[in-house]
User: Fold this.
Amino acid sequence: MKANVESAKTGEILLQDLQKRYGSYLAVDNVNLSISPGEFVSLLGPSGSGKTTTLMMIAGFESPNSGQVLLDGKDITKLPSHRRELGIIFQNYALFPHMTVEENVAYPLRMRRLQKPDITAKVSNVLDQVQLAQFATRYPHQMSGGQQQRVAIARALVFDPPVLLLDEPLGALDKKLRQHLRNEIKSLHNEVGKTMIYVTHDQDEALAMSDRVAVMHEGRIRQVAPPQEIYQRPADLFVAGFVGEANFIPVKVEAGIASTSTGEKLHVGDQKSGLQPGTICVRPEHLRLEAPANSASSGLPGHVTSMTFVGDATIVHFRSENGLELTSKVFNVSNRKRLEIGEACVASWSSSDATVLAQ
Ligand SMILES: Nc1ncnc2c1ncn2[C@@H]1O[C@H](COP(=O)(O)OP(=O)(O)OP(=O)(O)O)[C@@H](O)[C@H]1O
Ligand SMILES: [Mg+2]
Assistant:
């Protein structure tokens, strides 16, 4: 499709040293981010980390105290929001209740004073795209939350902006519907090839949808990377703890010998040479718990303290002889021997599955 190829060339966003203060409070602290045309980037972080404020500065609803926003190389920092031509979708959709679906979607085109036949054609085209053609004459209150959300997406897409900004667009919906709609937004992204900047505090959503995830904390971007890298190679303790579950094992090194804070020696053979002081981060699915006889000598001996069945897996809590508490996620496979509470076992992990983070 020619239109897609053309729009894929535009929509590059560059954030340079963006800073936003509310009084003495620094809500966004020197954010730098470069987003390629057609890329799907999530801003992921806990409540209050500055995600919405960052998005609002891109949209032009907030002005930064310092720094620039560039769209396709042009500085738009001072441009009013209605002249930025960015599609924006908020959490509460903000559909006009007294307008039908068609009228809601046509609104941005009427504001831009397009001719009626042109409006009709564009509206019908975009309603097809989000599979809402049969709802054209309904009012928002006659539709489900998920359908209303799709109207909001259609309204943001209809004037063909190079960039879509989405702020927790699925926040109000139940889990199943969120999963369904995130797949829809993702396939829409593949189809229309527009740059999408997606704000969420839901790590699963960010990992599943994004080309890259920017993890925010206290106004700063702590790491920007593809989802797998964020999960497997977190840059710091905050990212490791916020994205997924993790065991954190503080390690000190004295006279060339590495040991845990509870005094257990870690064998350098397992950890590769040159283990540094810091915190070892091991995901629960990478923590092995094996019978003492089967295990490599380098593990930590201890026992199972409790187990929780979570459907596809069992979460097994382990305590080492010196009292180090660790968690293992064991997938429930029918022919695997189940561990028992109180059972003696040895905890170990492969160095390739562990990240050592500075403290
Ligand atoms: N208009 C404002 N005046 C004063 N402080 C504000 C204003 N808007 C946001 N803040 C503060 O700035 C910080 C960042 O807010 P922001 O809305 O960007 O967070 P967020 O990451 O989007 O959080 P959430 O996940 O809860 O939506 C918060 O501490 C918030 O209280
Ligand atoms: Mg927010």
